[in-house]
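Note to self: keep these together.
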Amino acid sequence: MSTVSTEAAPLTAIGHFINGNEVAIQGGEFGDVFNPATGHRSARVALADEETTRTAITAAAAALPGWAGTPALRRARVMFRFRDLLDRHAADLARIISSEHGKLHDDALGEVTRGLEVVEFACGIPQVLKGEFSENVGTGIDSWSLRQPVGICAGITPFNFPAMVPMWMFPVAIACGNTFVLKPSEKDPSAPMYLARLLSEAGLPDGVFNVINGAKAAVDTLLTDPRVGAASFVGSTPVAEYIYTTAGAHGKRVQALGGAKNHMLVMPDADMEQAARALMGAAFGSAGERCMAISAAVAVGDAGDRLIETLAPMVRELKVGPAGSDGAEMGPLVTREHLEKVRAYVKLGVDEGADLVVDGRNVEVPGHPQGFYLGACLFDQVKPGMRIHNEEIFGPVLVVLRASDFDEALRLVNEHEFGNGAAIFTVDGRTARRFENGVQAGMVGINVPIPVPMAFHSFGGWKRSLFGPLHMHGPDGVRFYTRLKTVTARWPDRAPAKAEYTMPTMK
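Structure:
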């Protein structure tokens, strides 16, 4: 949670985006927004109450009939224009992300690109929305299917990808003919507001896309208002479960993506240099604040010592600094509260008896003494049952477990409560195939450490990493944001001779 502040400070004030306009809020509660690189407050963001949230829902409801009735081709043309604007302003959007999240500029630019890919998928929505047709399912009877919008859709998104995760949701929802209310993280709210302005510039009608900044009051209003038909969420598992049960109890369809503890098996036959470099990027990119980060490596057989020997020097040499600094490979964490939480996990791991091979807690970044920095941390000899293995740390902390053979390693992964993503590094195709078929995870990488699907596939996990049957973007995104309607029709040339009281069958 952001620190609530009621003081009048000469800071940028961030309000909401409702019905095509930025709404400045003078009273009520505000949250503090920080520049993680410096540790200084950079803005204050309005925290929407129930009334403000319902105003956004009302705007979405008013815009729904016209937008749902707009031909899919015209909706796609708005997405094409939005895509061009995103491409043109990608660097500006990346700088906004870096300034409030802290990730390095190239990493932020990569986030924008992955979101852009979903917009490109949405540009082809006329093709994707085509139904099926069967002629003569009975004598003179045809049948066909339609996909129609759900209605008003809500998106509740996390701090770690303030542009990409919203773009997993709203481009597909909007292209399918829905209207949308986005409730992004109050920790880094500027990127979603920027996206709203670009959508408006692209010609999206007022009210089709709205942004409500806020906290629990805004979320609960979206989950319980009867006008909202669907809710999408990405965040921690406890909140995902709350979203799923609350929205479901109020008759909404829900996709709620929760936490992760993504494992990477390193087999004895793997190229250790390749595996170690893959782990560096997968564990410490974006300071580990990724739901697809590899935060647990499982060294199989005699791979353990060789992996640690190769990996530890790389971890020690990882350069930490702000976005834009020369040679920086990892930026700060998002807030001081989150920094202290991750530091506490490192202490916990030591107390639990794990071997802290590399301790990044004393990192210093010249010129930024107040920044939210933590150096990369590496644990070895971590055991199942330790909290640093059981729980999602969401920071630059990599734990290494040892397994005697493949079966033990696979069992270790499958017994974990999360099943978001998993990877294996090996040169043996038979082992890779066994892993692919046997691992209980929604996304699998073979010699690919972060197996994030492309936009034309779907993103989602298993077990307590996903609540709801459908994944995000791609084909599952279209299924989630549309309702299937099947039509059976005939045009008889005369009335039937008599009424039929038996179950109808096609003849």
